[in-house]
Fold each of these.
Amino acid sequence: MTALEERPTQSAAVFSPTFDAQTDPLDVIRWALQTHPDLTMPSAFNLNGVVLLDLAGRAGYTGEVVFVDTGYHFPETLTTRDNLATRYPQMTFVTLNAGATPEDGQTDASLYSTDPDACCAVRKVAPLQAYLRQRAPSALLNARSRDQASTRADIPFVEEGTRRKINPLAFWTREQLEAYAAAHALPVNPLYADGFLSVGCWPCTRAVKPGEDARAGRWAGKGKTECGLWAGDGKL
Ligand code: SF4
C-alpha cells in the first residue's frame, strides 16, 4: 500500500490515508485536494502559513485563503497578506471582520488585557466559525506544526473533529520551514526577523527569547496558549 492509498477506519464512510512522518507535505496536500475538493485554508500568514500557501499553490490549490482581521493586527501582517494576495492570484483572499478597530464597540477596547479568551472568542473565533458554517467546507488546510510548541507536539497530518483538519506541515521543523521560505524567496512577515516567530495581535504578541518555543511570545504571562480556533470547546 502506498502513502496515498487509503484504508478504512472506524466506519465505511471514513477513510484515513497511510502517511508517515517522512511523507512529503506536497503529497499530503495533493491527497487533500483529491479527497476534499471544497478544501478551505484559514491563515494568519505566519512563517508556517506562508510556506503552506506556496506548497498549496504548487499542488494546484485555487480555493480561498481566509484571514480574520481582529482590528489589532500589526501593519506588517496586513502588508504580508496583501503581498501574498498579489503573489497567488489563483487563490481568493477573504478577510473577515474587515474594518474592525479597537474602538468599534465590538468588544471593550481593552478586553484583551482583562479577558483575552473573551476577546479572541468575539474578534477571531466567532467570525471564522460563522463563515465556515455558511460555507460548510468538508475540511480545512492548516499550517500548524509539532515543533511550534509543546502543546502541538502530537498534531497528526489528518485530524478529525467538528471538521477534518489537514496539517501537511505537522512534521516539518522551523529550520525546514525557514529553509523553504528562503529557497523560494517567500514574503515572510518582516516581524519574523525581529524575533516574532509567531505573530498575532499586537497587544498579545512579543518577540521570542533564545531557547523559547516559537509560540512563547503569544499571550505571554496571560496563562493562555491558543486563540481557540484549534483547541478548546469552540475549536474549528
Ligand atoms: S490575540 Fe489578543 S487582541 Fe487579538 S483577539 Fe485575542 S485577546 Fe484580542
Amino acid sequence: MQGVAKMPDDIATSTQPSVSVENIHISDADLPAFTDMPFEDIEELHLDHPGASDEEYRKRRDHIAACAKKFRETGVITDIEYSDEEQGIWRHVAGRLEELHEKHASRFYLQAKKDLGISNGRIPQLSEMNRRLKELTNFRLAPIEGLVNTRAFLSWLSWRTMLSTQYIRHHSRPDYTPEPDIVHEAIGHIPMFTNANFADYSQFIGHGARVANDEQLEELGRLYWFTVEFGLVEEEGDVKAYGAGLLSSFGELEHAFSDKVERRPFLLEQVINTPYDYSEMQRILYVIPSYSELKEVTRRYIESIAGRS
Ligand SMILES: [Fe+2]
C-alpha cells in the first residue's frame, strides 16, 4: 500500500514519517513479515506468576508458545486443543464476568461478543474470531506467546492487527492473571474490534506508534490505557465500560462504578498527560461521548504527531 513502509525501518529511523492516517484499507499483502518481529523482547512467564513453579503449566506454556512461533513462519494460526482443566477455568471466569457485563458493559460490546460467537461454554479459537473480524472490519489477530514492548505492540495496530495470547491463566488463581491471557483477549479486547470506529481508532494509535518519538510514545501508551484498556463510554444517558482491563476483571469492573473512582469527561490533552499505575486499581477513568468522537479527536492528534516527528 502506498505510503506504508515496513515496521523495522520505521522504528530504526526518526526521519520523515511514513504513515498516512487515511491508510485504513489494509490487505494481507500490505502486512510486514511477522518474522520481522523482535523475538528477543517477548516476555514469557515471570517468576512471580502463579504458575511459575508448576512444571506441567510451564510445559503447556512452552507448547502454546511454539504454536505462536510457528504462526510467524507460516502465517497460519494453530488452533489450541484446550484441556478440560483449561476449559473449566474459562467457564468459571466467563460465567462470573457475564453477570457483571449485563449491568456495566457497553451495549455494543454485548452484541459484539454474540456476533463473534464467544460463549461461556468453551474457549474460542483465535482462528475463528480472526475470520469473523476480517469479514466485519478487516481487523486481524496474530498469536503471540507473551508481552512485547509498547512500540512493537502498538505498531501492529497500524496494520489492523492485534497481537493476541492463546494460553490461559493458572488454575490456582482463576480470578487473577498478572499478564494478558486468552480471557483478557477474547473477553476483553477482541469484541470491540468489530466496531468500525473503534477499529479505525486503534489503527490510528498504531500509525502514531510507528512515527512517535519516545515522549509521544508514552502519550500514546496513556491514551491506549485510558481507552482500550480502561475506557468508559456514554450510552443512552448512562455510563458503560468498553475497556478490556475492565471487562475482563471482576475487581476492576465493580471498582470502576464505585464512588472510589473519579469518572472524568474525555479530554485528549488531559488523558495523554495523566500517569497511571498498572499495579493498582484505577482511581481516574475517562468517559468518551462516542466511539466516532474518540476516532475523530485521535485522528487530529495523530496527524499532529506525524507532522512534528
Ligand atoms: Fe490488554
